[in-house]
Design brief:
Length: 246
């Protein structure tokens, strides 16, 4: 039988479908509550306030990171000047030190520097006091450096100049060798360190020994031979130079 849709059964199917839609979405579009202007304003206020808070937190974190980086933390932007200031304060407190002079830092890599200072000490210090002074300076270089900055020093002990790094054992070896060379006849001054203008190094072959003597002519070769022999016992491969006393 053909029906035109007005039969009872057809209306029941349509009503059932409408009931299902009503249960899912409400009987009409008005069943979805329209938010008032006040509610919308409060929502935007909450969103805006949250955005401001998040932005403030991000700005604070970035400010802290940038400030830390500029102070050398993390080694991204090392500050050799600050490292030298720290060393200056520590070295100035070492017994026997009379002056600390800072030198321009040397850039050794993308984010690394050698920071160098000269520490002048009382030349009247005895051997034990000199040894303690060099050890204290070595500890100061170790604690002052870091974050891309290596702090080193030249200890000016009067007739001896000794390179000091964070390696206390090597610094002590330099001091002992310098003192031994200073006792060679005809030697008036000794510098025991790395090469002048070169990169500070604790490797034996990178050491540079400069000895001053007033000797001339035939007196010089024996001094050179003795200085070279004593030096290579401690630092094999180190360079040795004997120059005229100033």
């Amino acid at each position: 039988m053909v029906t035109d849709g007005t039969e009872r059964g057809g209306w029941q199917a349509a009503d059932q479908q409408d009931d299902d839609l009503n249960r899912a979405f409400g009987p009409e579009t008005a069943s979805v509550q329209t938010r008032s202007m006040g509610q919308r304003a409060r929502t935007w206020l909450v969103i805006g306030g949250s955005t401001v808070v998040v932005a403030g937190v991000i700005a604070l974190v970035l400010g802290t990171i940038i400030g830390s980086v500029q102070n050398g933390i993390g080694g991204v932007f090392p500050r050799p000047d600050l490292a030298l200031d720290r060393f200056d304060r520590q070295a100035s407190d070492v017994t026997g030190v009379t002056e600390v002079r800072q030198h321009p830092a040397t850039k050794t890599g993308f984010a690394s520097y050698d920071a160098i200072a000269t520490v002048t000490a009382d030349p009247s210090l005895d051997a034990a006091a000199r040894s303690e002074l060099v050890a204290d300076l070595s500890r100061a270089t170790d604690s002052a450096g870091g974050n891309g900055v290596r702090v080193v020093a030249i200890a000016d002990l009067g007739n001896l100049e000794v390179g000091v790094t964070e390696s206390r054992s090597v610094a002590e070896q330099r001091l002992v060798l310098a003192d031994r060379l200073d006792h060679i006849g005809g030697v008036t001054a000794v510098r025991c360190s790395w090469a002048r203008g070169g990169s500070p190094s604790d490797r034996a072959a990178d050491q540079a020994i400069v000895v001053e003597t007033p000797g001339r002519g035939a007196a010089v070769p024996p001094i050179v031979a003795r200085v070279t022999e004593e030096t290579h016992r401690v630092f094999p491969g180190a360079s040795v130079e004997v120059v005229a006393a100033k």
